[in-house]
Amino acid sequence: MRITRILLIAIAVGVMATHVQAQRRGGGTATFAVTVTDGSGAPIGGVLVTVQGPVTRQARTERGRIVFEGLPAGSYRLKFEHPDYVALEREVTARGRAPIAVPIVLTEAPKPVPPPPVVAPPVKADPVTIDITTFIERNFVGRAASKTSALACATGGSAALVQVREPLKEAATGDADRFLYVIAGTGNARIGSRDQPLGAGTFLMIPRGVEDELSARGRNPLSVLSVKAGGSCASAQARR
To answer: What is the pTM of this model?
Structure first.
């Protein structure tokens, strides 16, 4: 009886020792030493690294590096995310005491395609023919300081008759160039800081973004054909 008890105790001690040795061989914790770079080898900071397995960890890289310590042995799935790069996943097994190097190379995400430019719908317009002399008579400025009468408009441009007695300042436009042709009268055009004498037959081109001021000399008004190239079409209808 006593011998049997001694044998049972010896067997139990042996089993426990074997179990402890097995735990020592397969247990413990591991370390992942992660480096994240781009295709040229440059480190990528701010990458969100998620470790999922026997435990879950999450952190961001600093200068392309991050270390996860104290990981129980086992299989892990590592996920790497950054808004400028394509997400990547990697399977890694944690075992042994030495740090496990996990080098990762991320591919730059495709650049978003810019939306197509917004194009204004075409303005439905019919061909226009106007006798300028008759048009001026019907739309004469009279004693007014100035008068602008629409002649025609279409997609991307418009034309008007401008009659000036007193100085008329035109604000700079950012979306249209102006072409002026003096029909009658004399005067002056101040374009930016430059003065240009005007008379019948004078042609001017005033680029977008430049202010100008028209003024008349003498008793008769200065009559100018003004064409805008670019910008939105004027909504006013020509009066004939």
So the answer is: 0.48
The tally of domains found in the chain comes to 2
Q: Is 101 left (phi over 0), alpha (psi -120 to 50) or beta?
A: beta
Q: Are residues 88 and 151 in the same domain?
A: no
Distance CA 69, CA 72 (A): 9
- Amino acid 6: pLDDT: 54
- What does the alpha-carbon distance between residue 140 and residue 134 come to, in Å, rounded to a whole number? 10
Q: Measured between alpha carbons, how far is 121 from 155 in angstroms, rounded to an integer?
A: 8
Extract the tokens encoding 231: 């910008």
Q: Where are the beta strands (DSSP E) in 95-135?
A: 100-105
Q: Give the residue carrying structure tokens 């054909």.
A: 225
Does any domain span residue 44?
Answer: yes
Helices (H), 67-161: 132-138
CATH number for position 59: 2.60.40.10
Distance, CA of 22 to CA of 123 (rounded, Å): 85
Question: What average pLDDT is seen over the chain?
Answer: 84
Based on the fold, state whether residues 141 and 79 are members of the same structural domain.
no
Angle in degrees, CA 110, 36, 52, rounded to 5: 100
Give the integer Cα–Cα distance in Å for 240 and 152: 11
Reply yes or no on whether the pLDDT at 19 is more than 70: no
Helix (H) or strand (E) holding 148: strand 146-154
The range of the structural domain enclosing residue 219 comes to 132-230
